Amino acid sequence: LNLCINARDAMPKGGTLTLAVENQILGLYAYLSPGLSPGPYVEMSVTDTGVGIPKEIQDRIFDPFFSTKSPERGTGLGLSTVAGIVQNHGGFVSVESEPGKGSKFKLYLPAVRKQETAKAEKEIQVLPPGRGETILVAEDESALREITKETLESFGYRVLTAGDGAEAVSIYVQNKDTISLVLCDITMPIMDGPSAIRALIKTNPSVKVIVVSGHTEGEKLKEDLSPNVRNFIAKPYVVETLLKTIDKVLHEDPPPHSRG
Q1: What residue ranges of the chain are covered by domains with CATH 3.30.565.10?
Q2: Which of 12, 110, 200, 260 is least crowded, fewest Cβ atoms below 10 Å from its Cβ?
Q3: Which strand ranges, in their side-by-side order, compose the sheet holding 102-110?
Q4: Can you give the pTM of this predicted structure?
Q5: Which pLDDT score is estimated for 40?
Q6: What would be the CATH architecture of the domain defined by 2-120?
Q7: What sections of the chain are H helices per DSSP?
Q8: Whole-number pLDDT of residue 237
Q9: Cα–Cα distance between 257 and 129 in angstroms, integer?
């Protein structure tokens, strides 16, 4: 209810409020948050087409008493309360927002282990495995980088890792004949994702890239650097999304301009 009220307030001239619920299997991000365990979760999302949240304050919106509203419209405890309730139930909250386009809040809560949950856990066993392909993972968050590496290796891939864009380019240049795909974060030190991807394309015009980001600019980058950037995965993502996206991209034809 609190998120719906915030969504309403973010659309003073009207707009669209969308509520959705779906089952998810969490693997990677469960390991990154203390108190969370991998397994089945219920994802509840609240999406609006309102004013959006500036990037510079997105990390602070769950702080107690932080608010962009005028004092007469709230205390600033709303989102902090939401996060606290969800965390007390063993879950977490994420937000995706772009100024002028709207916001999407996702609440993840552990699912009750009933028949449908057992079915979901069974389905994860038939996720598409790798066949020894080499994937370069460029990610500056060390915990996520290592968990992604371990996950991909457990599904049959070889994995090389880089902590920034410059390192990713260097590793790719040395191993371009064996690397089948690059999984690249957008925001990285020394050389950011977009700059690194452009350098990779110069090195190999047929390079295949999947962009990973917690922000919506990933979709725009996919358009700007098509056909090399084949897909965009929004953080936080689940194992199923990661593996299915990688499998799809690996089996697509190479970029048209690289043929022949």
Answers
A1: 2-120
A2: 260
A3: 17-26, 39-48, 102-110, 92-98
A4: 0.58
A5: 84
A6: 2-Layer Sandwich (3.30)
A7: 2-9, 28-32, 78-88, 115-123, 142-154, 165-175, 193-203, 217-224, 239-250
A8: 81
A9: 29
